[in-house]
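Journal club prep — side note

Before the paper discussion, L.F. wants everyone to see what a predicted structure for a comparable chain looks like in token form. Sequence:
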Amino acid sequence: MKKTNKYNGMIYGMCIGVGVGTALGVVFNHTILGLAIGLGVGMFVGSLFTNKHDDDIE
């Protein structure tokens, strides 16, 4: 059950990161760069969300 929640948090964070990164990429006319940054930020946010979620479970 914990693994499922962990991956859900990562996917959730990645989706937000890719969305924000794509939006920024379109604004600054660097879509690929925006996606790359968004993915990195998404992983970071996802890991924070995951750690927080795991603490709530325990």
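L.F.'s comment for the group: The chain has one domain: 4-50. Keep this in mind when we get to the figures.
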